[in-house]
């Protein structure tokens, strides 16, 4: 797999955060009506400021993916609202890009990487030369500048996921929603993709929301971690993560504060009735 060229911190351009805040107020979701209805989410409040990276964690089956689909406008909430800026979302907005866990099925096998990234731009009416320019630029930004003409079957799993991320970037979304984006790759590739995500956030100024089962990943990536728990799921706690930047896999994870955050979040998931514990990063 082609490795991302990591630029030394002193040379990294930090972009101004762009777009508007993503705001969730009192969101609820139920399936069906009457006594047989199943309530999945209840009274969810969430705010993602421009340029922030927020992770959502919780037990399996809690409704994390349902929440993400409501944020993307793919599902309609039963209660409450999702808004970008002052506009309530009722359908998928142009400001939001979505990256799924199953990257392999989301790529068209008869198109090369460049074609896969450029294809969704047709629906926006973008002229072909501009589509190709944006697709190439996006692929270069995820370290695939030399793989433009390779087909999905010629790419490793990590490279295929980079293509999926590039497709969302080419769409020029201000907010990137990711559903377990690195769950299907090996550990080393996962670390590389986590660092890629942090670099993209820093260089492009985009907001990112990641649903993940991996608590270490949530702490490593996040400015804030939203913990869902219960049935129906609600917000058990929002944990602000204060770790030094830029983050890196060895030093950041060796920081004692990292272990404190991980323990705090795990306790909250397993025992949501616990009183929130103050950590060093909260001081």
Give a short synopsis of this structure.
By secondary structure, the chain is an alpha/beta fold.
Descriptive account of the structure:
By secondary structure, the chain is of the alpha/beta class. It is 33% helix and 22% strand. The protein is built from 9 helices and 10 strands. The strands form 2 sheets. Strands 6-7-8-3-9-10 form a 6-stranded mixed beta sheet, with helices on both faces. The chain has a 4-stranded antiparallel beta sheet with strand order 2-1-4-5, with helices on one face. The radius of gyration is 19 Å and the shape is globular.
Largest sheet: 6 strands, mixed
Task: Provide a count of the helices.
Answer: 9
Backbone structural class: alpha/beta
Write down the Rg.
Answer: 19 Å
What structural keywords apply?
disordered N terminus, 33% helix, disordered C terminus, six-stranded mixed β-sheet, 283 residues, 10 strands
Chain-wise SSE layout:
Elements: E1 22-31, E2 38-48, E3 53-57, H1 64-71, E4 79-84, E5 87-88, E6 96-99, H2 103-106, H3 113-118, H4 128-141, H5 157-170, E7 175-179, H6 187-204, E8 207-211, H7 215-221, E9 224-229, E10 234-240, H8 249-254, H9 256-270
Parallel strand pairs: 3-8, 3-9, 6-7, 7-8
Antiparallel strand pairs: 1-2, 1-4, 4-5, 9-10
Helix pairs in contact: 4-5, 7-9
